[in-house]
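Summary for the funding panel

The consortium committed to producing paired sequence-structure records for every protein in the target list. Below we show the first two records in order, beginning with the earlier of the two.
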Amino acid sequence: MKDEATGAKTSRWRHVAFTLMVGTIRVVFLIGIRLVYRVRAVRAERVPASGGVLLLPNHVTYADAFFLSAACPRPVRFVMDEAFIANPAIRWFTGIFGTVNIRRDQPLEAIREVIKALKKGDVVCLFPEGQLTRTGTLCTLQRGFELIASKAGHPLIPVWSDGSWGSIFSYERNRYFKKLPRGTAGGIHIAFGETLAAKGVDAHSVRDGIMAASADAIAQRFARQKFLQRRTSINGHQIGMINALQRRQPFQMLKGDPLVDALPGLTRGFAKLFHAKICIRDHFDPNDGTPWVGSDFLRKKILSAPIASRAFDFYDFSTQALVSFERTACAHYPCLAIDGMVVAMSMPDPPPGIGVDPQYGRRANSWGKLLPGWRILPSADGLPLVFGPAADAAGLPLPVDSSLDDEGFLMRGPCRG
């Protein structure tokens, strides 16, 4: 009996020592993440001091869990597929951060595990997109969180991670990891959105909450700038957070095109923030392969020019942008700007990922993806307005027949079901 008691006491001490060691490693590791990536929390007071809560963030990089853990005032347990635990580095992460391990092929059991963690009073993080974005924008939200919310009854908090698009862990430059690291200017801002009650929550309300959090994150990044300068910088930053025009790569505009002066967020904000050289050309010549950006002025030149011998991209901000045209070698990307601010952009379709749902950068009858930092709300008379830190408090009027679909495309006409 004495030996059993001694063994039990030794076991308890080992457990305490292990717990202290894990806690110390976690704290030191997260302090390092905060310092290296300059992680900043925005509206962290929205996370309740106790009780179960489900965090629903966008998913940009393989390091999102570290960034979110560094920003959240409470320890976070991440929902993770057991298939990844075979990787030693990921297995170490699951031990340090107490992940909620699930099996993707057993969805009902996975939901039970998440609900169990919430009922224990844990902060649980579930990435509702179910995959990393390869466009920089929010993907379609999977519906599992709705069942979790209705069964568990705990509140949900939408979250946005801003600034990590561009890191080696993101798909910026059209690949993960295999690229030189670049600094994340201004660091990474993690914004916690307004709490959503579990009852009646759906994909639409969560998407709107995540986009509202994106506006908070970006607003905080540029909070110290004066209004006019801030609008230009914010809109430039929004453009740089998606996979359309590339950072540190030139783009062309045509001399005499009114768009050169009409889009300061593009020609000054984006170009300056992301070292993208803007080349103003006297004549339209597509044969060097550099992307072109323009309005009706450029569109007419493209349609009347001889067929190009080399493929080129055309980011079309014209009034006829949704009118598609067949033009050999020209990849046509409709875009929308309102009051000088870029609101939505089409972009190349990213190549399909292995084992994940396809993602698209453009769609027929669409101006492209709504940029991070914008959210759409109806006005008093029911017309759609877009709000964000790059607009004034009244918002910007969208085309009257526009709507946002489930994949974040700004469509002309009713959204897809």
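The next record, for a separate protein in the list, is shown here:
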Amino acid sequence: MVAIRDVPYRPLVAVPDLSDGDSQTENLLIQGDNLDALKSLLPVYAGRVKCIFIDPPYNTRSAFEHYDDNREHSIWLSMMYPRLELLRELLSEDGSIWVTIDDNEGHYLKVIMDEVFGRRNFVANVFWQKTPTRENRTDFSAVHDHILLFAKKRDLWKEVRNALPASTSQLERFTNPDNDFRGVWASLPAHAKAEKGRRQAQFFTVTTPSGRTVDPPAGRCWLYTEPRFNEMVEDRRIWFGIDGANVPRVKKFLSEVQAGLVPSSFWSYQDVGTNAQAKLEIVSLFPGDTPFSTPKPEGLLNRIIHIATNPNDLVLDSFLGSGTTAAVAHKMGRRWIGIELGEHAETHCAARLRKVIAGEQGGISKDVNWQGGGGFRFCRLGEPVFDGHGSIRPGVGFADLARWVWYRETRRPLAEAPATPLLGVHQGTAYYLLFNGILGDRRPAGGNVLTAVLLDCLAPHDGPRVVFGEACRLHESKLAALDLRFRQLPYQANA
């Protein structure tokens, strides 16, 4: 298994000719190996991604045109593990990751995600009904996929996640048979399981308007004490049926639940779409093209992104495939990063996103009133900053090395590299980088070597300081007296 420290840090290189729309956009389409690409994102995006969705190859031992989906089990897990580690570093503290998978590797994937994200941060195993039809040519017809959902920190995520709007089928359950002035309502049971701790006051006999007496079912108790129950009856919040003889039920008004519904762990194809529907969406965009074997419908991504994010939040998909995640995020007003390997990053993903920017009306477009606009920057991976011997490659700029040094030391992103040696202050320590003539002079007295003269040129800081440079001319006792630590380039920047 590849260790994260052995993955090379490769800066992103923009390709303007393949970009589209707003040139100032933060949306990124990256072509390249997603392991390298994820590490390249760390210095700028660590802790900033609100939602990660990935649809990795399922390892089903079947042939896929665009993916090698026939790896040995252990190799597949070894491929996933370091990618999950990097994805965790990119998640915000209140962020979440959603991974689609089937039964071939789903339960093994759950175990390694428990290890990477922590079992306490497991939220749900969502069952997505990917097809309404039964496959009769096999011994057991699989009609669902799993969507494994983990939060970075579940206690934070559950406070910010969004509820679901009521579906058409759910809204149809709301009626108003008694002409209540508060509007339509649905009824719910007025009793609950009589668990330990329930008060005795929740066990009593109810007399219905028709004169019938009713006790709670065996092993259950009323939701309320008798005084509170009577208040609910007086407020017309208890329903006994048209003739007043039914078992009591609680009226729940639509006006009181429109804030949304708690997501459930079963998603019907009627609500979020199917694989077949996703293929039709792709074919409508690219007539005559052969779509991916298992694309995901825009409706599925719409639900995930709605639950996990708000407008302008950042969404990441490192197995972008046909580009669905980026397309849906774009239409929903989210920022996004998509990573894809090979030519179809250009032929499929970029082409699809250009259509989105132009205002295409497929998928969820009409549901979200999509009219077009925005843009994306197409990027490829540059050469590694460090070569095989640990040296800094010729041509590496100050900004790229500065971002890496800052992230390596602080585990925090550096969105904009400064124009001076001072990279920033973290937890009371100031970090400086002497590289590539940042002070305008490559001589030892004014360039990349720490001397007494150069030290006076650095921005002052009242506290510990760390300076990266090619060499140091100051004695260790002097450094200690100044509360300054020197770290030599390139070796102590690539450890």
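Regarding this second record: The chain has a mean pLDDT of 89. The chain is about 30% helix and 20% strand.
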